Fold:
Amino acid sequence: MTTTPGSTDQSLIRNFCIIAHIDHGKSTLADRMLQATDLVSDREMRAQYLDRMDIERERGITIKSQAVRLPYRAVDGRTYVLNLIDTPGHVDFTYEVSRSLAACEGAVLLVDAAQGIEAQTLANLYLALENDLQIIPVLNKIDLPAAQPDKYAAELAHIIGCSPDDVLRVSAKTGAGVAELLEQIVADIPPPTGDPDAPARALIFDSVYDTYRGVVTYVRMVDGSLDHRQRIEMMSTGATHEALEVGVISPEPVPGDALAAGEVGYLITGVKDVRQSRVGDTVTTAAAGAAEALGGYQDPKPMVYSGLFPIDGSDYPVLRDALDKLKLNDAALVYEPETSTALGFGFRCGFLGLLHLEIVRERLEREFGLDLISTAPSVVYRVGMEDGTEHVVTNPSEFPDGKIAEVNEPIVRATVIAPSDYVGAIMELCQSRRGTLLGMDYLSSDRVELRYTLPLAEIVFDFFDALKSRTRGYASLDYEPAGEQVADLVKVDILLHGDAVDAFSAIVHRDRAYSYGVAMAGKLKELIPRQQFEVPIQAAIGSRVIARENIRAIRKDVLAKCYGGDISRKRKLLEKQKEGKKRMKMVGSVEVPQEAFIAALSTESDR
Amino acid sequence: MRQDRRGTSRPALRFYVHVPYCAARCGYCDFNTYVPGEQGRGSRSQWRDAAVAEVAAARAALPVDPRPVASVFVGGGTPTLLPAADLGAVVARIAEEFGLTADAEVTVEANPENITPRLLDDLLTAGVNRLSIGMQSADPAVLAVLDRRHQRDGAVRAARLAALAGFDRVSLDLIYGTPGETDASWRDTVRTAIDTGVTHVSAYALKVEPGTALARQVAAGHVAPPDDDEAASRYEAADDMLTAAGLPWYEISNWAVPGHECRHNVGYWSGDDWWGVGPGAHSHLAGVRWWNVRHPTRWTAAVSGGEDPREGQEVLDADQRRTEQVMLGVRLAAGFDPDVLVGPGRRRTVAALARRGLLEPAGEREWRLTRRGRLLADAVTVELLQPVRSAATG
Structure:
């Protein structure tokens, strides 16, 4: 039996992933496995080898998955091929997670022995069970003084329906229990059972843009094989390319002759845009290809929109080029030019969720040196008019005037897990965010799972922060789209000296409009410096003003003294003010510092 | 501007002389001044020799400058803590090295509590012809907050003594907006100042300077910070009262009987040249500004040792010169000529500011600040310096 890439015997292959919450030690465990299989020397060992991007390393989270092939000599004397498929760990990337899981036969469910299972882990566990994956429950960090392995073993056993004795106990940090885990993987996870002689079918579970190689596509071969230099076809689009290179990651790319049924590897075709090689798509051969694609493919669909504007207007072309570059590596990112009277030229961008937004924004600032303002995130509304027309609104300033029949907003099904002491606080929060309780279950004697339907708009601002602060950090949250509902929503405009400031318009529930208006007007009163004339700040629904504040006119700005020794200092002060004026945006005749926009848009203390 | 012998126009040459000593430090003051115990031993007695030496050094640096000195201003600190003869020695050396113009103005700053008939006679003998007295307020509560050592009547008495001694040019300095001051007490202060019969009044809004005792008291919440709106009202009250008394404004913070303006200070605002003598003193000569080391001991050591006492300098480029010209020019009632501004939008900028009630015509070509404009002079200056932007929006 052979383990050469391209001709590995399927009975020796184990394809698995690790399902874990942020900080529960997934990357450390992956590092241990690399070491245990002698793939990476200690000298080369960079902490958390599999997380490549800086942002990932700093935040300790995995955004883009990778797959690594580990040759493992088991106790039975045979050498197995373990393919560890790393999965993204955040709610925004549920679809990518589901495709990674679809590439596996088993999953290691990794839970911190001091914290227990979290909502996202639970959601991903359910996804894995739906995909019929063999689950190996593992408690990590058993070396910690705060570890409660018995309690959490019982909790895991309760959730997946096994005995607490079946829950492995490891410390990825010290290496304790890792050898046993590897044996368990070989023993429990079934080998792949694809048809090696059928037409080729490979599932794309990740697609990464590399500056030098173009797009690198990660695939799980299900049936048949793909050869070096073969012409291949992407089944969702029918586009064909040449497989310029095929290979496996072990842990650096190793080019080979082919990828065979059951194997996990990569292929390079020379395309430059990840949209040509979409996660979830099926790859087959151009000649004598498969008739039917593997199931489960979806187009990525933005859930949250936000305007991104350069603080320095002359950076607009830099922002455009930067988005064009990021798009090569991010099939879910969509954008189009947007003009704001308050913020100038920028882009309306669509994201999978809040983390996705934050990651894109951070990469734009870090990798391209941009200073950006992002407007308050907005969801996608469908506005039906009385005349039967319909508008899709992703930007509050485009909310239609005129007679509106109904407004539909997206809703999500949310799962919150927390210690039972906080049930009251969580219910109060969800209630205030227009949530509907679907159900509540005790995972163990003192931990509860709450299920809610919530409007997406209510959680895209600061829901997670509010949840964390009300539960002293113990609650975890997961959510998935659950369709739409009709809601009584209105647009609140903010007017400065009579001119509407588009960046501050918001679509809110009618019951919340007044408090939003009062809070926003109050906040702007604090943030906008006094002008030479009185400036009214109004919040209005249509032409009806619901809140008003006044910025009194400034009467005096001059320094009374200016003699010989004051002149240099005074000139420098004026030069500074002159520079400061360049950072002012004119809203009608009112000068608003950039900082005021940033501060007003970045905090949501009005709830 | 004066015509020199070659017929080309050159700014006047002036001297500022800094006396860095005070009997006690006032809580609001961030000037370069030292109270007993802060300066090095004997430095006060060495001050005269060092100041005289710096005048000689100025002449050595300007060996062929033909300009006689148009004014000398001895400020501080508290110059009257020194014997009048010491001040006179410095004035005399300036006259000896450069000559004085026939109508040269020689001012000394004085605190009311130091002023005696004897001192006034000595100052007159030393060639001093103008006195600037630090009255600050007539409100005892305000004087206490300011840490001033004189009483309500001190300044009034000092002004009368000065007039009796033969000084026909006396100025009183006032401060408004001090915590504890009221509209009524401020009006009483201005009235008291006017009633002394002086021909010049300066009035400054109290500013909390970082590092002062007052700043610490404000930060600790013991004293309320001055309020800009209140300060604006006080300014308007003073302007009304002084104008009615025959002392119209000639600079944002200065009012005088016509002909009694401080020519030395007008020189600062008009771009004249001056040499600053003393520790921390600033100088300006043909677009170069420099300043001396601040500590009296270091300054004395440098000057006595024949070294250059300057700590730093800057050479103004065209842009900086224009900024200063606008920033200083707008402060004057005589107004400024819009042609000093650059850019095609300058006339529209001026027109827009006039429309908004901030500028008014002051002559054939000149414009000056309205009273509202005087209080917003910084904003007006910034706008004047950005003619293109204003042209686009105004």
